Hints:
CATH architecture: 3-Layer(aba) Sandwich
Structural class: alpha/beta
CATH class: Alpha Beta
Number of domains: 1
Strand order of the largest sheet: 3-2-1-4-5
CATH topology: Rossmann fold
Largest sheet: 5 strands, parallel
Distance between the termini: 35 Å
Shape: globular
Number of strands: 5
Order of helices and strands: EHHEHHEHEHHEH
Helix content: 40-55%
Amino acid sequence: MTAAPPPSAVIDTNAILDWLVFQDPGAAFGRAIECGTLRWIATPAMLLEHRRLFASPSLSAWSPDVARLEAAWARWAQVDTDTVPGCSLRCTDPDDQMFIDLALARHVTWLLTRDRALLKLARRAAPTGLRVLTPTHWQASMTVSAEAAAEANRPTATSRS
């Protein structure tokens, strides 16, 4: 019997930059991706957006290692080359529509973002099973889940008798 694949997430550009460029400790999802406990789903258009930003003068102060960023994409991103249909949820920022479209089309568990336009869709996306969260809220929910699992597996006083 094979193990079920790990849950999947679509991750917006700023969250990816937090992880790969700024090494933000709030980007714990990056460690989950690196450990194989979270699958990062992306599209070629998302990769192109990241490449444009990696070369952007606005990031030059951070001296991003473009080769390292490309290697991270190659190693961890599952790039979905199939056509992604548009969805009924409309993002007020047209540049961010691709994230919600992919998340809903591929039935991922999470869309991780700090973008207000995407976060505003959280309530409307919830009935589909998609959770639109900031990376910080995702990390907090994972901590709570781990603590609940540990508590559920802890022997009780009556089970030790």
